[in-house]
Design a protein that fits this description.
The complex is a heterodimer of chains A (112) and B (117).
Chain A (H helix, E strand, L loop, with lengths): L3 E4 L2 E5 L4 E7 L5 E7 L5 E8 L4 E4 L2 E6 L4 E6 L8 E8 L7 E3 L3 E6 L1
Parallel strand pairs in A: 2-11
Antiparallel strand pairs in A: 1-3, 3-8, 4-5, 4-9, 6-7, 7-8, 9-10, 9-11
Chain B lengths: L3 E4 L2 E4 L5 E7 L6 E7 L3 E10 L2 E4 L7 E3 L5 E6 L8 E8 L11 E3 L3 E5 L1
Parallel strand pairs in B: 2-11
Antiparallel strand pairs in B: 1-3, 3-8, 4-5, 4-9, 5-6, 7-8, 9-10, 9-11
The chains are: A mainly beta (112), B mainly beta (117).
Chain lengths: 112, 117
């Protein structure tokens, strides 16, 4: 079964607004990652947060992790039309088998 | 530095035909992965490899075989293609030194779109 599940499945906002996407997972993890996929392209890594971290920032990205609730959120502040893409969370298991499981993704549309 | 290269980019097969997707990486990565992406399903792990000569099953391995004879290449084979295998296939690999610490940050190829009629 899917390790990560995201909501909403789709999000449409105006340029300049903030976008928040959520990810829930089922088993213990070492870390959680967020990836971005532009239409017709491969995924690109955005940010990684380890299980002992609660919050992490990278530019306009802010990621939070709540291991007690097995959930994470990705906040994109001051969104731009170029942020239009699909965003996926990915988790590994507590045992480092190298296996990385992705959620179903959130499709974000930022209108100019 | 090409990163992760997948060939072919597009392929149309008839049911029952066989084919192999090739993934090549020039980054000396240890771990390599094959995912399939279907609408509304996200990415699902088919098979993966944690080193040359080793492979392991992912979430949806049935109907696929893989081989990792050389560290830089990871092949995904379909012995008898079915319409349910119509999908976009992505190969990915992990940056060196991070796999063993648990921080498996993937570098993806551009994808291979396969249609089975």
């Amino acid at each position: 079964s899917q390790q990560g599940e995201e909501d909403p499945q789709a999000l449409s906002i105006q340029e300049g607004e903030n976008a928040t996407m959520n990810c829930s997972y089922k088993t213990s993890i070492n870390n959680l990652q967020w990836y971005r996929q532009n239409s017709g392209r491969g995924l690109v890594h955005l940010i990684l947060i380890r299980s002992n971290e609660r919050e992490k920032h990278s530019g306009r990205l802010r990621v939070t992790l709540d291991t007690s609730k097995k959930s994470s959120s990705l906040l994109i502040t001051a969104s731009r039309a170029a942020d239009t893409a699909s965003y996926f969370c990915a988790t590994d298991g507590r045992r480092n088998t190298g296996k990385l499981i992705f959620g179903q993704g959130t499709t974000l549309q930022v209108k100019p | 530095n090409a990163g992760v290269t997948q060939t072919p980019k597009f392929r149309v097969l008839k049911t029952g035909q066989s084919m192999t997707l090739l993934c090549a990486q020039d980054m000396n990565h240890e771990y390599m992965y094959w995912y399939r992406q279907d609408p509304g399903m996200g990415l699902r792990l088919i098979h993966y490899s944690v080193g040359e000569g080793t492979t392991a099953k992912g979430e949806v391995p049935d109907g696929y075989n893989v081989s990792r004879l050389k560290k830089q290449n990871f092949l995904l084979g379909l012995e008898s293609a079915a319409p349910s295998q119509t999908s976009v296939y992505f190969c990915a690999s992990i940056r060196p030194g991070q796999g063993k610490t648990g921080a498996n940050v993937l570098t993806f190829g551009a994808g291979s779109r396969l249609t089975v009629l």
